[in-house]
Design brief:
Elements (H helix, E strand, L loop, with lengths): L25 H10 L14 H12 L4 H4 L1 H19 L8 H8 L12 E3 L4 E3 L11 H6 L3 H11 L9
Antiparallel strand pairs: 1-2
């Protein structure tokens, strides 16, 4: 029986299937984008200038403390945020609408001024408990909640406590 685990558990020490290195790099990010995220190579060529830009942004925004949890976990968090960044900002290739369609499907360009806590009409009513940590999120972090890769990045960051404003 294989010891394969996806995503790798924090501190597992093993390289994930998309990794060739224990440090984030453009080659492994591209493999992550095309395999894990499922972005077609026709929508995002391997020589796109947006890939290193997204990687640089994600490395700057991801807590270095994740390296101590495990280099595999740090890389996973960086690649998740880079993917979220590309989904939000990467322009489509000529004749393609992949990113525009994804942004429309997930309503990434629609304004959300906050989290809906309750709604009601004459015959029905719904409410949700708003977790306290949501009130401390920045606009960028609220945007990250809109796609699955941004949510995974936020989860990795929040797992490390209130050292950066999320707990």
């Amino acid at each position: 029986m294989s010891a394969f685990c996806f995503p790798p558990l924090p501190g597992m020490g093993a390289l994930a299937p998309w990794q060739t290195s224990t440090t984030p790099n453009v080659t492994d990010l591209y493999t992550f984008l095309t395999t894990v995220a499922g972005i077609p190579t026709s929508a995002l060529p391997s020589d796109s200038a947006y890939i290193p830009w997204a990687l640089s942004y994600a490395e700057e925004m991801t807590l270095q403390v994740l390296r101590f949890v495990g280099q595999d976990y740090y890389c996973f968090a960086v690649y998740c945020l880079a993917t979220s960044f590309l989904i939000n900002w990467c322009p489509d290739q000529p004749g393609q609408t992949y990113f525009a369609d994804l942004r429309k499907t997930w309503n990434l360009t629609g304004f959300t001024g906050g989290i809906i806590q309750s709604t009601a009409d004459q015959s029905t009513s719904e409410s949700m408990l708003m977790p306290e940590f949501l009130s401390g999120l920045t606009i960028g972090q609220l945007q990250a909640l809109k796609d699955p890769f941004g949510r995974q990045w936020l989860a990795a960051m929040a797992d490390n406590g209130p050292i950066w404003g999320i707990s």
